[in-house]
Amino acid sequence: MAYWLIKSEPEECGLTHFIAASDQGIPWDGVRNYQARNFIRAMQPGDRVLLYHSSCQRVGIAGELRVISEPYPDPLQFDPDSRYFDAKATRVVPRWTAIDLVLASALSRLVPLVELKRMKAFKSSPLVKKGNRLSVMPLTREQWLAVEKIA
DNA sequence: GCCAACGTTGGC
DNA sequence: GCCAACGTTGGC
Questions:
Q1: Count of domains forming chain A
Q2: N or C: which end of chain A has fewer CB within 10 A?
Q3: Which residues touch strand C (CB under 7 A)?
């Protein structure tokens, strides 16, 4: 079982969306960055995921999710009407990958970025680095436990 | 809204 | 294969 963190704009797909879909989960699609994609491809059912709210008034970690599918080809890459359409992707050789996630639990409070920056466990994490744009990243067990402890 | 960081694209 | 231009991300 591995630990991950994913970023999302709460307006787009945040904690409230996962609460609303808490019985069936939500496909995590539309990722168009190779490094993030490669992390998605390494995910397995049962993996634990922290949901981070980005580009909003209160940036920080809002909830815990769980992976409930194997990685699969992101259907949006084949849809010409989607903003995530990719003309260079084929059914035989898909380029982008999606995964299904379900809410495990909302944190008792939002753990803000400023607080993460102070935590020893996140000292070297790309999450707290200025200019970081990685939207999917692995977490160490230490980082996961550190968040659970203070949430 | 601003700006820094960084990935992608395309000309050469 | 280099690198400038451009677009996007994301904190503030």
A1: 1
A2: N
A3: A 7, 54-56, 59, 113-114, 130-135
Cα(A91)–Cα(A75) distance, integer angstroms: 9
pLDDT of residue A131 exceeding 90: no
Q: For the domain that residue A133 is a member of, what is the CATH number?
A: 3.10.590.10
The string of pLDDT tens digits covering residues A68-93 is 999 999 999 999 889 899 988 989 98
**A72 token code pair:** 């699969």
Assign A31 a pLDDT band (cuts: 50, 70, 90). Answer: very high
Distances, alpha carbon A106 to alpha carbons A38, A69, A124, A132, in Å: 26, 20, 25, 25
Determine the structural domain holding residue A91 and report its residue range. Answer: 3-150
The CA–C1' separation of A68 and B4, in angstroms, is 37
